[in-house]
C-alpha cells in the first residue's frame, strides 16, 4: 500500500509548530516510519522579496527564525533519511536560545552535517529557501496558520486538529495497507 503523505508547512520559531514537532511528529515518525512519507516545508508566513542579488527573506519572529528556517531547509535538502531529519528538527524545536548554538548541539543527529553547512554558506541555501517559499505560496487553500498540515495533499480544519492532537491515530486511519503493530 502507498505510504500516507504528510506535509508540514511552518515557520520554525512558531510555538504551535514546535509543540507539534516535539509531541506529535517526532514520536510518530519513530513509531511508524514505514507507512509515513513526510515533507517538511520550513517557510511559513515569512516574506520573500526579490532583490538585486536574488531574494531576501523576512520572518515573523525575526532574523533568528530566518536562520533556523534556512538550517532546516538545508537539512531537508541534504538528508534523505526521514527519521534522522525528524530527530534533527525535533532537537532544534525542543531547545530555546541561540539558533547557532542549538544547531551545533543538534548537528550530531546528522552524519554528514558538512553538507548542511555547505548549503548554508552557498547559493544552494537560497535556492532551497526559494523552493520552500514557492511550495508554500502554491498551497490551496492558502496557509493561514502555522503549522499547516496536509495529509495526502488535503487540508481541512478536521485534519489539522487531529494531527495536532493525535497524529499517530490520524496516519493509521489513513493507511490502506496492513497496519503496523504501533497502530
TrEMBL record:
rRNA-binding listed as a keyword: no
Keyword annotations of the record: Glycoprotein, Secreted, Signal
GO cellular component, one term: extracellular region
Highest taxon in the source lineage: Eukaryota
GO molecular function, one term: oxidoreductase activity, acting on a sulfur group of donors, disulfide as acceptor
Xref: InterPro entries: Interferon-induced_GILT (IPR004911)
Record has Repeat as a keyword: no
Record's subcellular location: Secreted
Main location class: secreted
Family of the protein in this entry: Belongs to the GILT family.
Protein name per Swiss-Prot or TrEMBL: Gamma-interferon-inducible lysosomal thiol reductase
Species of the source: Nematostella vectensis
Taxonomic placement: Eukaryota, Metazoa, Cnidaria, Anthozoa, Hexacorallia
